[in-house]
Amino acid sequence: EDQVTQSPEALRLQEGESSSLNCSYTVSGLRGLFWYRQDPGKGPEFLFTLYSAGEEKEKERLKATLTKKESFLHITAPKPEDSATYLCAVQLSIDYKLSFGAGTTVTVRA
Amino acid sequence: DAGVIQSPRHEVTEMGQEVTLRCKPISGHNSLFWYRQTMMRGLELLIYFNNNVPIDDSGMPEDRFSAKMPNASFSTLKIQPSEPRDSAVYFCASSIQGLAGGRQFFGPGTRLTVL
User: Fold this and answer.
1) Which of B 84-103 lie inside 8 A of A, CB atoms?
2) Can you tell me the distance from the alpha carbon of B90 to that of B77, in angstroms, rounded to the nearest whole number?
3) What tens digit of pLDDT does each residue of B24-45 get?
4) Do A43 and B101 touch (CB under 8 A)?
């Protein structure tokens, strides 16, 4: 059965303290792996799509990487405004559905 | 662009009542997705449409749930009769299938509370 697992469930960081979030997946036929950010009371907001192992993408303090079994979202020198829930999702090559992990809630203290 | 528009933003109803949630996708998008988010189950896909045709409704929990997309700019998700366990945030998302890897744009959600 296809599965997406995110860890840790929650992460509390001091401002400037870099860290990484993990998204491991067991699927057959990956089309793409997506990262979204979700703020309380809002819908998920797109961050990145990764398509093949070895691919990396960056946006401000965020960097996403992909291997054949997992993806990492690295947060470098986070600021309080990076506090959010980060969701990863996989899309299979057979259709355009997204299957989401449970998310990692990141809290950055000033 | 206004983004994906959902209404109402909040809905409180009593068990047994009919609930209709509405979604207007981004103009030009040809795929539309309905999701439900709860603390217990996270974000789960209920149904998705491509070119107004339902493609996969395997996530619809039971016959009390139905969804329609009468045209490219409007979709509804109906629950009849509603039950307390239906309480959740319901999101609509749209995308251009085949482009940009099918990146989905989410609406602000409808928070449903069934008493």
Assistant:
1) 91, 93, 95, 97, 100-103
2) 9
3) 999 999 999 999 999 999 999 9
4) no
